[in-house]
C-alpha cells in the first residue's frame, strides 16, 4: 500500500503517462485508503495537468497528448467528484468562448480542461459566440471573460466584446483574457484586455494572476 505522498505522485505520473485506467485505479485506491478526494484532486490530478501544461508550453507535448491527458484526468475526476464535500468552493468562475465568426475550438477546449484542473469553475460558451453572450456571462457573475480566436479576421471581435462590456457598465467587474494563434501581447494591450495567454499553461497562470 502506498502512502498518500507516493499515491499522489503516482497519480501525477499516470496523468502525464496519458493512462486513464491507471488514473481511475489510483483514485479508487485513494478513496479506499480514506484520503480526502479534494486532496487527490489537487495534489494528483491537477498537478499532473500542470506538468502536462508545462510540457505543452515547452513543445514536448502537442494537442493530441494534451487531449489524451485530459481524458485521463477526467477518468479520475469522475470518481472523485462524487465524494467531494458539499460546498467545496471553486477558486473562481471563468467564461471561455471562441469569438463570433470562428469555429476553431480545440485550443479553447484545452484551456478549459487546464483551468478546471486548477480548481476554477468554467462556463463554456462554445464557439462562434455572439458578443452579447459574453456580456450576458459577465452579467451572470463570471470573474473572467476569456476569448480565443484562430483567425486574424475575427480578432477584432475581441475588442467589440470589451466595448460592449464598457457600454453595459460591466468592464470594472470583470477581467478580460485573450489568446489564440494570431493574438499577441501587443494586440491584447491595444484592445485593453487585462491578460494575454499564448498557450493553455499560460492561461492558467494568467487566470490565477487576475483573480489574486
Question: How would you characterize the overall build of this protein?
Answer:
This protein is of the alpha/beta class and 212 residues long. It has helices spanning 4-16, 20-32, 37-57, 63-80, 106-117, 131-139, 156-167, 185-191, 200-210, and strands spanning 93-99, 121-129, 144-148, 175-179, 195-197. The protein is 55% helix and 14% strand. Strands 2-1-3-4-5 form a 5-stranded parallel sheet, with helices on both faces. Strand 3 (144-148), helix 7 and strand 4 (175-179) form a beta-alpha-beta unit. Helix 2 (20-32) runs parallel beside helix 4 and helix 6 (131-139) crosses helix 7.
Provide key terms for this protein.
elongated; alpha/beta
List the helices and strands and how they pair.
Layout: H1 4-16, H2 20-32, H3 37-57, H4 63-80, E1 93-99, H5 106-117, E2 121-129, H6 131-139, E3 144-148, H7 156-167, E4 175-179, H8 185-191, E5 195-197, H9 200-210
Parallel strand pairs: 1-2, 1-3, 3-4, 4-5
Helix pairs in contact: 1-2, 1-3, 2-4, 3-4, 4-5, 5-9, 6-7
In short:
The protein has 212 residues and is an alpha/beta fold.
